[in-house]
Amino acid sequence: MRTFHIVGVVGAACIAAGGCGLGQWAIRRDRVSYNIALQRTASEEMLLNLVRLKYREPTLFLDVGNISTQFEYAMETEWICAYPRSRAYTLTGKVMPSYTEKPTITYTPLRGETYASRVIGEIALDRLAPLYATGWRVDRLIRMLVERAGELCNDPTVGPAPGESLRPQQKLLEIARIWRQLQKSGDLAFTTPTVEKVVATGIRREEVTAKCQMDADKEGYRFRPAKDGTWELLRSVPCGLIIRAAYSDEKDADKVDEYLKIKPARTRDQRGRFVERIRLIAFGEIRDGGEKPDIPELPVQIRSLNGVLFYLGQGIQVPPAHAQRGIVKTYKDEQGQVVDRHEETKDLLDVRCSVMRPAGAYVAVRYRGYWFHLEDGNTDSKDTFSLLLILCALQSGDAKSAQPLLTLPIGGGGRGRGGD
C-alpha cells in the first residue's frame, strides 16, 4: 500500500471569509484583558511610588503611550491518500488552524516639562469643585490636597502657637469635620464663578466673520465691539472658588471663622441656618491693599501630586528593623516628641507590610524584601487610593496643552493684552 501526504495552506479567500469573525473574537478575547492589566499595573506603580517616597527615594512614572497588536491567522491542512492493492484508495484529511498575536507596547517615562507640570506642579485650586461635585468627601479632599489654608498648615509636626492648645493641623481637621457634616446634610456647596478677561484688542471689524465667531465660541472666547470701532476678544476665566456654608449651629460658624481668622457676612435663610460665603484663592493672588473684596478671601495652597504622595507615603507601615537602622525618617514635633505618621494617616490610607505575600490584597508590591499592600476589606484606604489615581489622570495633560488653541487673524491692528 502506498501512502501520500499532501500538506497545504488554505488560501486567502478562506482567511478573508472568516476575517471579520476572527477579528471580533480577538477583540472580545483581548480588550478586557488589556484593560485589567493596565488598571492593575497602574495601581501597583502608584503604590510603589508611595513606598519609594517613604524611603526618601525619587518617584518614577511610566506612561503607556500606545498599545498596538498584530494578529496572524493561518489554516494548514494535511491530506493522507492511501492506495491499497486489493481495493479502492482512501483519502483522509485534517485542518490545523493557528493564531499568533504580536503586541507592541510603548512606555514613556515622565521627564522634563511633562514631569514638572504633572508631578511636581501644584494642582489647580479649581480641581476641588468637580471632585467635590462627584461625591468625594470634603474632609478627605482637605486632608489630602490642602497644604495650607490661611495661617493653618497641614503638618502634624508644627506645634501650637503661643498661648494656644491646638496645633494648626488640628484646627484645619476640625474645620474639615464641620464641613463634612454640612456636606452630608446638603448644606455645603462649591461654586466656580467666572469673569471675562480681555485677551486681544484692536481687531478689525471685517476680520470678525461668522465662522470666526463660531470658532471662538467653541473655545470659550467671545467677541465684543469696542468704543473705537474695533473689536475685542474676551475669554471667561475662573475667579477663585467660592464655598457656601449653611450652619444650623452658629457655634460651628464661629469656630470656623475663628480658626481661619476671617469675618464673612452672615445671613439667615428661610430655614434659620447661618449662611456664609468664602472665596478661596491661591497665595499668588493675594492683593495688597486696594479695593476690599465683596466676599472674604482665604488664600489656599494646594499640594502637587508628588506632595500628596509624600504626605500619604510617610504614614506607610515599615519593618521595625528599617526604622531602627534609620533607613526611614523618624518625625518629631517642636517639643521633641516622636510623631507616629502611620497613626495620623491610617484612616485615610493604611499601607501594611509583611514578609510573605498577603493573600487577597487589593494591591501589593514587593520592595526591599517585604510586601507592601492595601487590604481589600479597607474601603477607606481603597477610596483614597482611587482618588490618587484620579488625581494622576487629571494631571496627565501635557503642559503645552494649556496654550490657547484658537488662532485668529488679528494681524495689522491687533494689540495683545497678554495670555490667559
Characteristic terms for this protein:
about 425 residues; alpha+beta; four-stranded antiparallel sheet
Describe it for me?
- By secondary structure, the protein is α+β, with helices and mostly antiparallel strands.
- It has helices spanning 12-54, 112-120, 128-133, 138-145, 168-184, 210-218, 250-260, 305-313, 320-324, 341-345, 379-394; strands spanning 2-9, 62-83, 90-109, 146-149, 152-153, 188-191, 194-203, 221-225, 231-238, 241-247, 267-268, 274-282, 297-302, 331-332, 338-339, 352-354, 361-367, 370-375, 415-416.
- Among the domains are: 2-106, no CATH class; 319-377, no CATH class.
- It is 33% helix and 31% strand.
- Strand 17 (361-367) and strand 18 form a beta hairpin.
- The longest helix has 43 residues, at 12-54.
- The radius of gyration is 31 Å and the shape is extended.
- Mean pLDDT is 82; it is low at 9-17 and 398-420.
How are the SSEs ordered, and which strands pair?
Blueprint: E1 2-9, H1 12-54, E2 62-83, E3 90-109, H2 112-120, H3 128-133, H4 138-145, E4 146-149, E5 152-153, H5 168-184, E6 188-191, E7 194-203, H6 210-218, E8 221-225, E9 231-238, E10 241-247, H7 250-260, E11 267-268, E12 274-282, E13 297-302, H8 305-313, H9 320-324, E14 331-332, E15 338-339, H10 341-345, E16 352-354, E17 361-367, E18 370-375, H11 379-394, E19 415-416
Parallel strand pairs: 12-13
Antiparallel strand pairs: 1-2, 2-3, 4-5, 4-13, 6-10, 7-9, 7-19, 8-9, 10-12, 11-12, 14-15, 16-18, 17-18
